[in-house]
Amino acid sequence: MSASTILLIFMWIFAIAFIIILFKDVKAHKQELDKAKLGFNSIISLIANFFDTLGIGSYAIATSAWKFNKSISDDLIPGTLNVAFAIPICVEATITMTRISVDPLTLVLMIGSAILGSILGAKIISRMDIMKIRVIMGIALLIVAAVTLCKINSIGPFGMVGTARGLSGAMLVIGVIGNFILGILMTAGIGLYAPCMALILLLGMSTDVAFPIMMGSCAFLCPACGITFIKEGKYQRGATIPMLIAGSIGVLIAGFIVTSLPLTLLTYLVCIVMVICAALFFHDAKKQKK
């Protein structure tokens, strides 16, 4: 049995445990569920996870949509991202990890370090006040926009073409530490995909190797940090389960029905929206401070 298969088995055991915890929490608070704009949030989840499967990322798309429409409170956005998108990302990981080969040790250690980082990050973010979260979300969107622009224009590490399917020695240590940091940042709304791909390319690995590593990392770390957000009650309970279902449908459509789209123009548009949304977060934080 391959390392990828073993990881997938553990991933889905963990995912089932996560779903049980989520359902118990939602049921325990069923009298206070906020179902406002439920349809909008579900559609956004489907769209965001659809494009996530194609490599654009889901966090920035969903964050921008929720911010513009005010459908989810700013302080609940980080938790909702990690809780509602946990299972769709597990579906993504199942698709990519069964299709692309990668060195088992590299895969296991980089995924493990991302999990540890996310658990630490979730504890920090879930206890922050709304003003700090708004500032962090604004910074996160600007970082993601910059990295995404570098990605689609092959700037910096994205212009490099590696061939390695794994790491060893000092390079493996750097990769593990780097993914640990990205695991922390993901809980604050900085999507792991583009930064993880940049890290992998900088270390000389093949571009396709990024997909099982980054999607596998997210598939483990989202439920891991999501449990923390659930226990703290820092997520949108009323919309999470419908978004989880809609997001999984979006992944399946992208993974098995749509194999490719002309995404460059759309990605530029998403970057513009991210910058505007970041400005809104900063504006609201400044207004609250006054």
Automatic annotation (TrEMBL):
This is Sulfite exporter TauE/SafE family protein. The keyword Zinc-finger does not apply. Keywords: Membrane, Transmembrane, Transmembrane helix. It comes from the Bacteria. It comes from Dorea phocaeensis. The chain crosses the membrane at residues 6-26, 38-61, 76-95, 107-125, 131-150, 170-203, 209-229, 241-259, 265-282.
